[in-house]
Write a structure and sequence with these properties.
The chain is of the alpha/beta class. It has one domain: 3-Layer(aba) Sandwich (Rossmann fold). The protein has six helices and five strands. The protein has a five-stranded parallel beta sheet, sandwiched between helices. The termini are far apart.
């Protein structure tokens, strides 16, 4: 039975690093950052309608990969319970097992990693100010005990 690994965590936590390791082991990696980048949006966010289309395409890719029997790693922030529940439902509907991994680090580590990436030009170098990162963390809907998540602390 295929396994879907849902990665949940803020920018700079190490989700993509972890996801790439699973990808090296054969999992299909789904990344909204890379979908947006590949669609040509380098310096600004696409309009909401296009974001919705790209998101739906990732969900379709999930279904295709699982139908082919592949494991999948969902490399998104999954910052709300509703979004995590949606991906769990899609995984279950496709007959896959699903695990939730919360990837986290202390704020100073997150901020240092974001700063290092701010000047890089690639899909996973989301530009944030310190204030934006703090706001993002302040609104993050962390998984509760009922979500059966495993926590991975990537502090250096």
């Amino acid at each position: 039975m295929p396994m879907v690994t849902l990665l949940c965590g803020p920018a700079g936590a190490g989700k993509t690093t972890y996801a790439r390791e699973l990808e090296r082991r054969g999992a299909v990696r789904l990344s909204m950052d890379e979908a947006v980048w590949a669609d040509g949006w380098r310096h600004r966010q696409p309009p909401q309608q296009r974001l919705d289309e790209l998101y739906a395409a990732l969900q379709s890719e999930l279904a295709r990969a699982l139908a082919d029997g592949a494991d999948v790693v969902v490399d998104l922030s999954l910052a709300s319970r509703a979004v995590r529940d949606e991906w769990r439902r899609l995984s279950a509907d496709a007959g896959a097992d699903c695990e939730l991994l919360v990837v986290t680090a202390p704020f100073d580590v997150l901020w240092r990693r974001v700063q290092q990436r701010n000047d890089e030009g690639h899909a996973n170098a989301v530009r944030l100010t310190e204030a934006e990162l703090r706001r993002y963390l302040g609104g993050f809907d962390w998984p509760g005990p009922d979500e059966d998540a495993r926590v991975i602390d990537t502090a250096d």
